[in-house]
Write a structure and sequence with these properties.
Length: 487
């Protein structure tokens, strides 16, 4: 087939086995340093100003992005905070990385940024080469890539590609649309707008736009008041930890969930809402860092194939190295690539990799004004070079190991306060005993100069950038221990 299908992530292949002890970003602060409580007076003043313009209740503090550097975010009150959360898991190589700051000093990159094209109709001469050299250089065994703006719209358009492919398979490859299809679709009616469905999982998060939201099931606040589809929602495995000690129960959990998937597909096929695709995260992130085994993902792929449903793996949060492999689903050894892999966040541009089968036969079916942004590809190019040159996946594996061992030690020391340490690479989480304790730990860690994230009802999650080093892990673990002691 295509030359790219053989290239399993060249970044991984080129990693030299050396590690470095210097900081990856020169001049990075040596530790957190607090001047005020957080938010401090300047943050509070700006908050009042912003709140008069737009609802801003979720704002935690205002950042000084001139001063933030490497793993440290600096706020407008001069507080230096170790960031293990990184703008909701979306900063790949820390703040103000010199390789990224240089990107727009290059005139070609600057002009690609300034003259932002409608990529679907007037791409620049550089575009095929950039896609090949940048995005396809890390493709997860899929030959095509379509760029988009964000995670939600990547999923949204990928869902459309799955429906379009499903109907093409039903209709026959080169069969034209009927007049009735063309008339009925414009009024949202079948057969042109067919009653198809996608299967997703309880606890999933795939975005907040209308289609993506129909497959998001993590929190009520995301969904209240918004109409949605009657689509099948399957149980996602809920494991007992430590995994090594609960193998039999967890395998039974896999089987139970897979049986439910098959039941649901049959039910929805029968009731006239055939399942055109299955969408799943490699680790359910917003839903609480819920993991499922490689076998679960392998079996799920088999079920998808059996029922002619396509298989979408949403790597918006897990992609770009944080699990120790460039794509988290590489941990699963799937017998063949998924049909679609969506990405955004640390990839800096949104988009999706896809099989040839997921290409619509007609133009303008997956389309919008911008279809991505060449400026973001220029940044991603520099970012991928840095990941490769600095062996950052090796760093993630090494630091992740230290962090996980540290969390397990703390779990043993404070078993009544935290449990269920889990994850891969530096993509790690631990549960607090109660939701209130989780919230309190995050609040107190911030006042100690460490920014953390929560997910699910009572999980604490780590989402450091790929340049998080052992020294940063030490700062985090030491302060986490102090806070656990204080509770
Ligand atoms: O509250 C929110 O809207 C949040 S907090 C974290 C996210 C969204 N993550 C975004 C996300 C994701 O984690 C997965 C697995 N898939 C899709 C999305 C949507 O991406 P964006 O936010 O770029 O639209």
């Amino acid at each position: 087939m295509h030359m790219w299908s053989k290239t399993v992530c060249p970044i991984l292949q080129n990693v030299a086995k050396t590690s470095s002890i210097r900081t990856y970003v020169k001049g990075e602060p040596t530790g957190p340093q607090l001047k005020t409580e957080i938010p401090g007076p300047i943050s509070r003043k700006l908050h009042a100003e912003l709140n008069a313009i737009q609802p801003s209740d979720a704002v935690q503090f205002f950042a000084d992005y001139n001063k933030s550097l490497g793993n440290y975010i600096v706020d407008v009150d001069g507080n230096i905070i170790l960031d293990t959360y990184n703008q909701i898991a979306s900063i790949p190589i820390g703040y103000n990385h010199p390789s990224l700051l240089k990107v727009f000093q290059n005139e070609d990159n600057l002009k690609a940024l300034v003259n932002r094209p409608a990529l679907g109709v007037f791409p620049g001469d550089y575009w095929p080469k950039k896609l090949r050299n940048v995005l396809l250089s890390v493709a997860p065994r899929l030959p095509n890539v379509t760029t988009m703006m964000c995670g939600s719209c990547s999923n949204e358009n990928a869902y459309k590609a799955m429906f379009i492919a499903y109907r093409r398979h039903q209709r026959g490859e080169n069969v034209d649309f009927t007049d009735l299809e063309k008339e009925s679709c414009v009024s949202n009616k079948p057969p042109g707008a067919p009653d198809l469905s996608l299967l997703s999982f309880h606890g999933a998060f795939h975005g907040r736009t209308l289609g993506a939201l129909a497959t998001t099931h993590s929190k009520a606040i995301h969904k209240l008041d918004v109409p949605s589809f009657d689509w099948p929602i399957a149980p996602f495995p809920q494991y007992k930890y430590p995994l090594e000690e609960n193998q039999r129960e967890n395998e039974a959990e896999d089987k139970k969930c897979l049986a439910a998937v098959e039941d649901l597909i049959q039910t929805y096929n029968k009731k006239g809402k055939p399942v055109a695709g299955i969408v799943i995260e490699p680790i359910q992130s917003e839903g609480g860092d819920n993991e499922a085994s490689p076998e679960f993902f392998q079996q799920l792929q088999k079920i998808a194939k059996k029922y002619g449903a396509s298989y979408l793996i949403d790597e918006v949060q897990t992609g770009c190295g944080a699990t120790g492999k460039f794509w988290a689903h590489e941990h699963f050894n799937l017998e063949s690539p998924p049909d679609i892999v969506t990405f955004s966040k640390k990839m800096l541009t949104g988009g999706y990799y896809h099989s040839i089968d997921m290409r619509p036969n007609q133009p303008y079916r997956i389309f919008n004004t911008w279809m991505g942004d060449p400026g973001k590809i220029a940044l991603l190019e520099a970012c991928l070079e840095t990941i490769k040159n600095e062996n950052l996946l090796d760093n993630v594996i090494k630091v992740g190991d230290k962090l996980k061992k540290g969390l397990l030690r703390l779990e043993a020391e404070f078993p009544e306060k935290i449990n269920s340490t889990r994850g891969r690479g530096t993509f790690l989480a631990v549960n607090a005993a109660t939701p209130a304790l989780r919230d309190s730990i995050i609040a107190k860690m911030k006042q100690k100069g460490v920014l953390m994230g929560g997910c699910g009802d009572q999980s604490l999650r780590l989402r450091p950038s790929l340049i998080f080093q052992e020294r940063h892990a030490d700062v985090f673990l030491e302060r986490f221990r102090q806070i656990l002691n204080e509770h």
